[in-house]
Write a structure and sequence with these properties.
This protein is α/β, with parallel strands linked by helices. The chain is built from eleven helices and 15 strands. The longest helix has 21 residues. It is globular.
Length: about 325
Protein backbone atom coordinates (compact mmCIF):
# COMPACT_ATOMS: atom_id res chain seq x y z
CA UNK A 1 0.00 0.00 0.00
CA UNK A 2 1.33 3.44 -0.95
CA UNK A 3 1.25 6.24 1.62
CA UNK A 4 0.92 10.00 1.27
CA UNK A 5 0.52 13.25 3.13
CA UNK A 6 -1.68 15.89 1.52
CA UNK A 7 -1.17 19.46 2.73
CA UNK A 8 -4.20 21.70 2.34
CA UNK A 9 -6.27 18.51 2.37
CA UNK A 10 -9.55 20.21 3.26
CA UNK A 11 -9.38 22.61 0.31
CA UNK A 12 -11.03 22.27 -3.09
CA UNK A 13 -8.34 20.24 -4.85
CA UNK A 14 -6.96 18.65 -1.68
CA UNK A 15 -10.26 17.06 -0.67
CA UNK A 16 -10.76 15.60 -4.14
CA UNK A 17 -7.21 14.25 -4.10
CA UNK A 18 -7.72 12.62 -0.70
CA UNK A 19 -10.85 10.93 -2.04
CA UNK A 20 -9.07 9.60 -5.13
CA UNK A 21 -6.09 8.32 -3.15
CA UNK A 22 -8.42 6.54 -0.74
CA UNK A 23 -10.26 4.94 -3.68
CA UNK A 24 -6.88 3.67 -4.90
CA UNK A 25 -6.22 2.17 -1.44
CA UNK A 26 -3.49 4.58 -0.46
CA UNK A 27 -2.87 5.23 3.21
CA UNK A 28 -3.62 8.95 3.39
CA UNK A 29 -2.78 11.58 5.98
CA UNK A 30 -4.51 14.94 5.70
CA UNK A 31 -2.73 18.02 7.03
CA UNK A 32 -5.22 20.77 7.85
CA UNK A 33 -4.82 24.15 9.47
CA UNK A 34 -6.35 24.26 12.98
CA UNK A 35 -9.71 26.01 13.01
CA UNK A 36 -10.56 25.36 9.36
CA UNK A 37 -13.65 23.42 8.25
CA UNK A 38 -13.44 19.65 7.89
CA UNK A 39 -16.81 18.89 6.27
CA UNK A 40 -15.31 17.98 2.89
CA UNK A 41 -13.24 15.22 4.54
CA UNK A 42 -16.11 13.66 6.47
CA UNK A 43 -16.50 9.96 5.74
CA UNK A 44 -13.15 9.65 3.94
CA UNK A 45 -10.66 7.08 5.26
CA UNK A 46 -7.89 9.51 6.10
CA UNK A 47 -5.95 10.39 9.23
CA UNK A 48 -6.50 14.08 9.96
CA UNK A 49 -3.48 15.89 11.36
CA UNK A 50 -3.67 19.49 12.52
CA UNK A 51 -0.63 21.52 11.57
CA UNK A 52 0.74 24.60 9.89
CA UNK A 53 3.26 24.63 7.05
CA UNK A 54 4.76 27.72 8.72
CA UNK A 55 5.53 25.67 11.84
CA UNK A 56 8.26 23.11 11.02
CA UNK A 57 7.66 21.23 14.27
CA UNK A 58 4.11 20.38 13.16
CA UNK A 59 5.45 18.73 9.98
CA UNK A 60 7.98 16.32 11.46
CA UNK A 61 5.52 13.64 12.63
CA UNK A 62 3.20 14.26 9.67
CA UNK A 63 5.80 13.25 7.06
CA UNK A 64 7.38 10.42 9.01
CA UNK A 65 6.91 7.12 7.20
CA UNK A 66 5.10 8.39 4.10
CA UNK A 67 6.35 7.88 0.56
CA UNK A 68 4.89 10.97 -1.11
CA UNK A 69 3.95 14.46 -0.01
CA UNK A 70 1.41 16.31 -2.16
CA UNK A 71 2.00 19.94 -1.26
CA UNK A 72 -1.19 21.86 -2.05
CA UNK A 73 -1.44 24.27 0.90
CA UNK A 74 -0.88 27.83 -0.29
CA UNK A 75 -2.10 31.40 -0.23
CA UNK A 76 -3.95 31.40 -3.57
CA UNK A 77 -5.19 34.91 -4.32
CA UNK A 78 -4.84 37.22 -7.29
CA UNK A 79 -4.32 40.38 -5.26
CA UNK A 80 -2.47 41.52 -2.17
CA UNK A 81 0.93 42.68 -0.86
CA UNK A 82 4.08 40.67 -1.52
CA UNK A 83 4.99 39.65 2.03
CA UNK A 84 2.14 37.21 2.79
CA UNK A 85 2.75 35.32 -0.46
CA UNK A 86 6.46 35.01 0.22
CA UNK A 87 5.84 33.99 3.82
CA UNK A 88 3.14 31.39 3.23
CA UNK A 89 3.95 30.03 -0.21
CA UNK A 90 7.72 30.22 -0.32
CA UNK A 91 8.41 29.84 3.40
CA UNK A 92 5.82 27.09 3.72
CA UNK A 93 7.19 25.18 0.74
CA UNK A 94 10.69 25.43 2.16
CA UNK A 95 9.47 23.97 5.46
CA UNK A 96 7.62 21.12 3.71
CA UNK A 97 10.59 20.22 1.51
CA UNK A 98 13.00 20.33 4.45
CA UNK A 99 10.74 18.17 6.61
CA UNK A 100 10.16 15.70 3.79
CA UNK A 101 13.87 15.38 3.02
CA UNK A 102 14.74 14.92 6.68
CA UNK A 103 11.90 12.44 7.18
CA UNK A 104 12.87 10.09 4.39
CA UNK A 105 10.01 10.94 2.02
CA UNK A 106 10.68 9.69 -1.50
CA UNK A 107 8.92 12.39 -3.54
CA UNK A 108 7.28 15.80 -3.15
CA UNK A 109 4.66 16.77 -5.74
CA UNK A 110 4.20 20.54 -5.73
CA UNK A 111 1.00 22.16 -6.90
CA UNK A 112 2.15 25.20 -8.83
CA UNK A 113 0.24 27.40 -11.27
CA UNK A 114 0.27 28.70 -14.83
CA UNK A 115 0.44 32.10 -13.14
CA UNK A 116 4.23 31.65 -13.33
CA UNK A 117 3.85 32.89 -16.93
CA UNK A 118 3.03 36.34 -18.22
CA UNK A 119 -0.48 36.27 -19.63
CA UNK A 120 0.45 37.70 -23.01
CA UNK A 121 -1.42 35.24 -25.22
CA UNK A 122 -0.66 31.50 -25.49
CA UNK A 123 -2.05 28.82 -27.82
CA UNK A 124 -0.98 25.20 -27.39
CA UNK A 125 1.74 26.25 -24.94
CA UNK A 126 3.68 23.86 -22.74
CA UNK A 127 6.11 23.57 -19.85
CA UNK A 128 8.96 25.29 -21.69
CA UNK A 129 7.10 28.62 -21.80
CA UNK A 130 9.26 31.29 -20.07
CA UNK A 131 8.65 31.97 -16.38
CA UNK A 132 8.04 35.66 -17.02
CA UNK A 133 5.24 36.50 -14.57
CA UNK A 134 5.14 40.29 -13.96
CA UNK A 135 7.04 41.40 -10.87
CA UNK A 136 3.94 42.99 -9.35
CA UNK A 137 1.87 39.78 -9.48
CA UNK A 138 3.07 38.37 -6.19
CA UNK A 139 1.21 35.06 -6.27
CA UNK A 140 2.82 34.08 -9.57
CA UNK A 141 6.26 35.23 -8.43
CA UNK A 142 5.90 33.20 -5.24
CA UNK A 143 5.13 30.07 -7.26
CA UNK A 144 8.25 30.61 -9.38
CA UNK A 145 10.26 30.70 -6.14
CA UNK A 146 8.49 27.56 -4.83
CA UNK A 147 9.36 25.65 -7.99
CA UNK A 148 12.98 26.77 -7.70
CA UNK A 149 13.18 25.54 -4.10
CA UNK A 150 11.94 22.08 -5.02
CA UNK A 151 14.13 21.92 -8.13
CA UNK A 152 17.22 22.76 -6.07
CA UNK A 153 16.43 20.04 -3.52
CA UNK A 154 15.93 17.54 -6.32
CA UNK A 155 19.16 18.48 -8.11
CA UNK A 156 21.09 18.07 -4.86
CA UNK A 157 19.68 14.57 -4.48
CA UNK A 158 17.84 15.37 -1.27
CA UNK A 159 14.42 14.35 -2.57
CA UNK A 160 12.56 13.65 -5.81
CA UNK A 161 10.60 16.70 -6.87
CA UNK A 162 7.75 17.00 -9.38
CA UNK A 163 5.91 20.22 -10.29
CA UNK A 164 2.32 20.21 -11.55
CA UNK A 165 0.69 23.27 -13.15
CA UNK A 166 -3.08 22.90 -13.61
CA UNK A 167 -5.04 24.32 -16.52
CA UNK A 168 -5.96 27.99 -16.18
CA UNK A 169 -9.52 27.28 -14.97
CA UNK A 170 -9.67 24.48 -12.39
CA UNK A 171 -13.24 23.56 -11.46
CA UNK A 172 -15.29 20.82 -9.87
CA UNK A 173 -17.05 19.69 -6.70
CA UNK A 174 -16.00 21.36 -3.41
CA UNK A 175 -14.92 24.55 -5.21
CA UNK A 176 -16.38 26.95 -2.65
CA UNK A 177 -14.00 29.81 -3.41
CA UNK A 178 -14.44 30.15 -7.18
CA UNK A 179 -17.36 28.35 -8.81
CA UNK A 180 -19.63 28.76 -5.79
CA UNK A 181 -19.27 32.53 -6.32
CA UNK A 182 -19.34 32.43 -10.12
CA UNK A 183 -22.54 30.37 -10.43
CA UNK A 184 -24.81 32.90 -8.62
CA UNK A 185 -23.49 35.68 -10.89
CA UNK A 186 -24.35 33.58 -13.95
CA UNK A 187 -27.79 32.78 -12.52
CA UNK A 188 -28.53 36.44 -11.80
CA UNK A 189 -27.26 37.62 -15.18
CA UNK A 190 -24.71 39.99 -13.66
CA UNK A 191 -21.58 38.45 -15.16
CA UNK A 192 -19.72 40.38 -17.88
CA UNK A 193 -17.14 39.05 -20.34
CA UNK A 194 -13.98 40.90 -21.30
CA UNK A 195 -13.51 41.37 -25.07
CA UNK A 196 -16.68 39.35 -25.75
CA UNK A 197 -15.22 36.28 -24.05
CA UNK A 198 -13.31 35.28 -27.18
CA UNK A 199 -9.97 34.48 -25.49
CA UNK A 200 -9.12 30.77 -25.43
CA UNK A 201 -8.16 28.86 -22.31
CA UNK A 202 -7.39 25.45 -20.87
CA UNK A 203 -9.58 23.99 -18.14
CA UNK A 204 -8.75 21.45 -15.42
CA UNK A 205 -11.70 19.46 -14.11
CA UNK A 206 -10.63 18.47 -10.62
CA UNK A 207 -10.93 14.69 -11.03
CA UNK A 208 -8.71 14.87 -14.11
CA UNK A 209 -6.25 17.06 -12.25
CA UNK A 210 -6.09 14.65 -9.31
CA UNK A 211 -5.56 11.76 -11.72
CA UNK A 212 -2.57 13.65 -13.12
CA UNK A 213 -1.24 14.34 -9.62
CA UNK A 214 -1.27 10.63 -8.82
CA UNK A 215 0.60 9.86 -12.05
CA UNK A 216 3.16 12.53 -11.14
CA UNK A 217 3.63 10.83 -7.78
CA UNK A 218 3.98 7.26 -9.01
CA UNK A 219 5.80 7.29 -12.34
CA UNK A 220 9.57 7.04 -11.97
CA UNK A 221 10.20 9.08 -15.11
CA UNK A 222 8.38 12.07 -13.56
CA UNK A 223 11.17 12.78 -11.05
CA UNK A 224 12.64 16.23 -11.60
CA UNK A 225 10.05 17.16 -14.22
CA UNK A 226 7.30 19.75 -14.59
CA UNK A 227 3.91 18.92 -16.08
CA UNK A 228 0.87 20.85 -17.24
CA UNK A 229 -2.25 18.88 -16.30
CA UNK A 230 -5.28 20.14 -18.21
CA UNK A 231 -8.42 18.90 -19.91
CA UNK A 232 -8.16 17.84 -23.52
CA UNK A 233 -10.02 20.87 -24.89
CA UNK A 234 -9.43 24.30 -26.38
CA UNK A 235 -12.38 26.56 -25.64
CA UNK A 236 -13.27 30.24 -25.30
CA UNK A 237 -14.59 31.79 -22.10
CA UNK A 238 -17.92 32.42 -23.84
CA UNK A 239 -18.20 28.80 -24.98
CA UNK A 240 -17.27 27.51 -21.53
CA UNK A 241 -19.75 29.66 -19.63
CA UNK A 242 -22.46 28.93 -22.18
CA UNK A 243 -22.04 25.24 -21.30
CA UNK A 244 -22.24 26.05 -17.59
CA UNK A 245 -25.35 28.18 -18.13
CA UNK A 246 -27.02 25.45 -20.12
CA UNK A 247 -26.51 23.05 -17.21
CA UNK A 248 -27.66 25.70 -14.72
CA UNK A 249 -30.77 26.32 -16.83
CA UNK A 250 -30.12 30.04 -17.34
CA UNK A 251 -29.35 32.31 -20.28
CA UNK A 252 -25.66 32.86 -21.12
CA UNK A 253 -24.15 36.26 -20.25
CA UNK A 254 -24.63 39.03 -22.79
CA UNK A 255 -22.64 41.82 -21.20
CA UNK A 256 -19.08 42.50 -22.35
CA UNK A 257 -16.48 45.11 -21.51
CA UNK A 258 -13.43 46.08 -23.62
CA UNK A 259 -10.19 45.12 -21.93
CA UNK A 260 -8.87 48.72 -21.47
CA UNK A 261 -12.09 49.62 -19.64
CA UNK A 262 -12.00 46.46 -17.51
CA UNK A 263 -8.34 47.02 -16.65
CA UNK A 264 -8.93 50.64 -15.63
CA UNK A 265 -11.95 49.70 -13.52
CA UNK A 266 -9.99 46.89 -11.86
CA UNK A 267 -7.06 49.17 -11.06
CA UNK A 268 -9.42 51.69 -9.47
CA UNK A 269 -11.14 48.94 -7.47
CA UNK A 270 -7.81 47.62 -6.20
CA UNK A 271 -6.76 51.10 -5.05
CA UNK A 272 -10.06 51.65 -3.29
CA UNK A 273 -9.98 48.25 -1.58
CA UNK A 274 -6.41 48.79 -0.37
CA UNK A 275 -7.76 51.73 1.63
CA UNK A 276 -11.20 50.66 2.81
CA UNK A 277 -10.79 46.84 2.96
CA UNK A 278 -7.03 46.13 3.01
CA UNK A 279 -7.50 42.57 4.28
CA UNK A 280 -10.21 41.59 1.79
CA UNK A 281 -9.95 40.57 -1.85
CA UNK A 282 -11.52 43.12 -4.24
CA UNK A 283 -14.55 42.05 -6.30
CA UNK A 284 -12.59 42.96 -9.44
CA UNK A 285 -8.82 42.71 -9.99
CA UNK A 286 -6.48 43.48 -12.86
CA UNK A 287 -5.50 39.81 -12.92
CA UNK A 288 -9.08 38.70 -13.56
CA UNK A 289 -9.49 41.26 -16.31
CA UNK A 290 -6.27 40.17 -17.98
CA UNK A 291 -6.83 36.43 -17.65
CA UNK A 292 -10.09 36.79 -19.60
CA UNK A 293 -8.63 39.06 -22.26
CA UNK A 294 -5.68 36.97 -23.49
CA UNK A 295 -5.42 33.47 -24.94
CA UNK A 296 -4.21 31.14 -22.15
CA UNK A 297 -4.35 27.73 -23.74
CA UNK A 298 -1.81 25.25 -22.37
CA UNK A 299 -1.69 21.57 -23.26
CA UNK A 300 -0.72 18.34 -21.48
CA UNK A 301 1.32 16.92 -24.37
CA UNK A 302 4.31 16.12 -22.15
CA UNK A 303 2.18 14.41 -19.49
CA UNK A 304 0.50 12.32 -22.19
CA UNK A 305 3.80 11.22 -23.70
CA UNK A 306 5.72 10.57 -20.49
CA UNK A 307 3.05 9.61 -17.96
CA UNK A 308 0.30 8.19 -20.14
CA UNK A 309 -2.03 10.92 -18.88
CA UNK A 310 -5.52 10.97 -20.42
CA UNK A 311 -8.35 12.91 -18.76
CA UNK A 312 -10.86 10.30 -17.52
CA UNK A 313 -13.79 12.78 -17.44
CA UNK A 314 -14.80 14.84 -20.49
CA UNK A 315 -15.61 18.53 -20.20
CA UNK A 316 -19.40 18.32 -20.38
CA UNK A 317 -19.57 15.53 -17.82
CA UNK A 318 -17.27 17.54 -15.54
CA UNK A 319 -19.60 20.53 -15.88
CA UNK A 320 -22.62 18.32 -15.08
CA UNK A 321 -20.97 16.97 -11.93
CA UNK A 322 -19.87 20.45 -10.86
CA UNK A 323 -23.35 21.96 -11.23
CA UNK A 324 -24.91 18.98 -9.43
CA UNK A 325 -22.54 19.59 -6.50
CA UNK A 326 -23.24 23.33 -6.58
CA UNK A 327 -26.99 22.77 -6.29
CA UNK A 328 -26.48 20.62 -3.19
CA UNK A 329 -24.06 23.17 -1.77
CA UNK A 330 -26.42 26.11 -2.43
CA UNK A 331 -29.24 24.36 -0.55
CA UNK A 332 -27.02 23.96 2.52
CA UNK A 333 -25.50 27.46 2.40
Amino acid sequence: MSSALVTGANGFIGSNLVRLLAEKNWEVRSLVLPGTALAVLEGLPTKILFGDILEPSSLEAAVRGVEVVFHLAALARDWGPREPFMKVNVGGTRNVVEAAAAGGVRRVVLMSSLAVHDYRGHRGAGEDTPLDCPADFHYGRSKIACEALLREAHEKGRIEGVVVRPGVFPFGPNDTTSFAKLAPALEKGIFAFVNDGEARLSTAYVENLCHGLVLAATYGRAAGKTYVIADDVEITWRELFTLFCRELGVKPPRLSVPYPVADAAAAATERLWSVIHPDEEPPLTRYRARVMARDLHFVSRKAKLELGYAPPVDLEEGIRRTVAWYRRYAKRA
